[in-house]
Each structure stands twice: as C-alpha cells, then as structure tokens.
C-alpha cells in the first residue's frame, strides 16, 4: 500500500491529465462541448479539466515586435523534409554521413523491474551525466535511483536512495561549482493518512549525504514536494515548492537555503487571498533571468464572463530580485487558451517563451503551444504546432522541454503520436512561429522526456523504452539535425573532486532527515533586511593590555568591507580590510591610550555595523 500510493501520487503530479484519465469521459450536462471532471471543495465552481471545443476559430496568433528580435507568431505549416533522408535546417535534402555503430544511445535496466526517468537530467562538472530514475513492479516496490554516467552515457556507478521508514521521490537535481549535488523532491509518510513533505538533500562530490532538510506542509495541505531547484547568482538554493490544498489555500512557494543547509526564508506566490478564483495552482519550472525569477506551470481559472466555471490554464509568475511578486498571469485568461506550461526559457533580454500543451482546440485533441510573455508580464502572443503539421493521423503532440539551437531555432523534447493517451517521445526543430523544420519520433518510448544541452552543443534526452515485458531507461544524444552523434573518444577523468573511487551501492537517508518548521522561517523581506547589516561584537570589553577580538556576522553577503576604529574625538586610529566571509580579527591594543573607542564596519562605502570598546 505504501509504495503503490506513492507512485500513484507521483504519476498524478507529472501527468495531470490525459494519460491517467483518458478513458470513460462523460459530457458535462452544462455544456456538451466540455468535459466536466469534478467540483471543488467549496462546491461553487465546476472544474472543466478537458475542454473539447472552445469555439475560438476566430482567435489567431498575433504578429509582434520586441526590442531586439522580430517574432512572427503567425501560423505556418512548413515541413522542410525529404522522405527517407536526414533534414538540414535550411530545407535542403543532403545525405549526412552516418554509421549505426556510432549511435550514442544507452539502455539502463534493473532485473525484472520497470525503470522510469525521474528528476531532470543534468550535466556534471566533469561532462558526465546525472540521471534520476524510479524502479517498480506493478506500481509496487518503488525504489529511487541516481546514475552517474561518463560522457558517452556509460554507467560509472549507480546508487539506490533509501529511507527505512518513509517513501522518497526525487524530481530535480542541480550541482554547485564544488561538485556537490542537490536532489529535491518529497518524503512521504504512511500512517492513517497520506502526507508528503518537501525534501532537499545535499550530497558531497563522493555521493555521500551531507544534509537533508524537509519542510512540513501547511495546515491547509495534505502533501508537499519540491518540483524544481536552482542555485541562483547569490549562490543560494531556491526551491520551487508545491503544497497540495485542492485549491483551498496557497500552493506555490519558493523556499531558500544556503549551501550549508540553513533555511533562509519561504514565501507563497499567486496567493489564494490575492487570486480567490484561481484553483489548483502548480509551478513546474523555475528560472533566473536578468535579476528576476520566473515560474511556469498551470492553474484552473474562470472562463471569460462565467466565474463559476474554471478551466485548465497555463500559468506564469514573475518575481523580482528581492523575491517580491511582480505579476501573475493565467495565460490569455480572456481568451480560450486551455492547457499547461511545462517549461520556460528567455529568448532575449525582455521576452520569455513558455512551452507546453494546448488542450482540445479547433476540434483537435491536443497540440504543442508556445507562449510569449515579457519580463514585465505583458502577454504578446502564442503559436501552435498543429497535429496535421506532423501527420494526418497524429492525435496529440506536446512540448516538455526547450533548448536553443541558434539565434532563430529551438529544439523541443516532445511527445506525439496517433493515440489520444500514451505516445512515443520525440523532438521538434521549430522557430517561434512554430514553423516545423524537422521532427523525429522514438518508437516504443513513453513518458515525459527530460533534455539537457551538453558542453558540445548537442542534446541528451532521457525517456523510457519498452523492451520485452519491462521498461528500460533510454538515453540518447542527438545534434540539431536530430541525428545521433558519434561517441566521444577523448579520455576524461571523472569525479576528480572526490579523493577516492566511488562505488555503486545504497545511500541511506534514514538518519539524515531534519524537519524545519515553516513557522520558524522569515519572509524574503525579513531575511534580506537582516543580512543588510554586519553585526559586530568585541571582547574582552573592557580590554586592558591584551589583544582585542572583533567578531562579524553576515560578511559572506557583503563586498568591499572595511573596519575602522575611532577615538572619543572622532579621530580614526585604525583601518583594516575585511574579506568576504571573514568572521573575526585580533588587534593588539596594549599601547592604545585608555578611553572609549567606536568600531565601525563599512560595506561598499556605507556603514553597516558598529559597537563600542573601552580600553583601560
């Protein structure tokens, strides 16, 4: 029961519609063109999960101009391809030299178990890859895994991540410049009720756990998890936290930790009190861009003119450098754009592009959606990959991840096929107008793919593939022509930041867990106000004929720090540079005249801390 529940919740988080609930639809009695799934806890809003036909045939993407790039967001049905030949992005039909024995593809399996990707794929500091996965049999006996591969995807070692008492789920990884790995997800308790807590774990360069932090759920929620994590420009961990409340309370949070595991602050976004009509808010992707932060996800939001009916909407949130909410956008809320934003990337300094799925428009089942919004929160258009651009039998296509290929083209890790539910993984080469220059399907694959752009400007994609009776993990590396790249024959040294050879095994988190009360954490405003200052303490005080020790706090958050001491007449008697991160200094004051002295600390020319010292 324990593992079955955990895996079911995992699937719901990753696949909120379509795959799990693709059978036995029933028309809504309110409007025959819509599918009515459920009613929220207050009973006053019908939630339409599966809009079938939104009657928006007159709604067209618009043309728009940014300050740096002209983006024509108009529909075009380009498929510059020659049957049976690799496609070049300029549309020519050139045969690319290709050898099957050079294919960069890897199959990872566990004996008599299914293995499915879990957590975003990342490239390590040594050009290897870190891959997360879950193994299971018939939705039971779920185990979490991390794999480290070399530059060609060959496994260097694998580790099962275990907790003796609780279930684990890992959805995201990131790595710092010192080679420490951070895994984020949830820890799940199984007693009389199912409860999950957001979890972050730090592993040193040898893969050993350093610290584990869990944030309890809020009183209104019954489970929580971390869905994405980044290390920002201030070298702090910023976690995108989901607290499941069924829309009754705040659900999207950012939580900050320093790299030593100290909890810094937590704050909700798209709050229930500010957006009372918005339900079931989930953030899927977090990025930092030009002194700001942006979240992509989805919510349920009222249809124009009818606040009692809410529909699935892409959701974007803009946040400034102080982590104050700038804007919240249920995308095209006054239109009929139903769907999900799975990812978001900047396309220039001022324009962001979201990628995801648009549900059931123009009588089609579902298609990929590109959404454009400025860093100031202005919606400036959208474009779509229509199913018939790919083929007449295609029923579904959607974008999971986006990466830039060059100034005008992008690669999208995607899912598309002829089935209304589960379909193979594939890739698109597209521009911002959703002109489709090339595409490739990967037969027998499933699941939502993860993609990383590698050091050599190629792309590794992670999926699973059915081989016999079980699913295996499937890694493959392709170039911008969607062709397999040759293996890299260069000799590399892996895990050089670990002093010993790393072995495969089990990483046990049973004794690692520390639960931090949310009530004890400040808001970002309170936290950043506290680190504006450098508290100063001097001892012994009074001091007589001996060394004086001066201690500092918060110097890691400051630069150009200087210590100055003044006598009772305001004359400067001592000056010394203090280094970022320095915690104390010692001064020989035995020869100083007796009296009162003022200790002042400056940061970038401004006074940020002081104390008084008496010399006897």
List the defining traits of the structure above:
6-stranded mixed beta sheet; disordered N terminus
Tally of helical segments: 3
How far from one another are the termini? Answer: 72 Å
The total count of strands amounts to: 44
**Radius of gyration computed on alpha carbons:** 27 Å
Shape, principal axes of CA atoms: globular
Low-confidence spans: 1-101
Secondary-structure-based class equals mainly beta
Taken as a percent bin, the fraction of beta residues is over 45%
- What average pLDDT do the residues reach? 80
Biggest pleated-sheet summary: 6 strands, mixed
What percent of residues adopt helix (DSSP H or I)? under 10%
What does this molecule look like?
The structure is a single chain. The chain has 616 residues and is mainly beta. It is 4% helix and 49% strand. It contains 3 helices and 44 strands. Strands 2, 3, 21, 22, 23 and 24 form a 6-stranded mixed beta sheet that branches. Strands 8, 9, 10, 11, 12 and 36 form a 6-stranded mixed beta sheet that branches. It has a 5-stranded mixed beta sheet with strand order 13-14-15-16-37. Strand 19 and strand 20 form a beta hairpin. The radius of gyration is 27 Å and the shape is globular. The termini are far apart. The model is unreliable at 1-101 (pLDDT under 50).
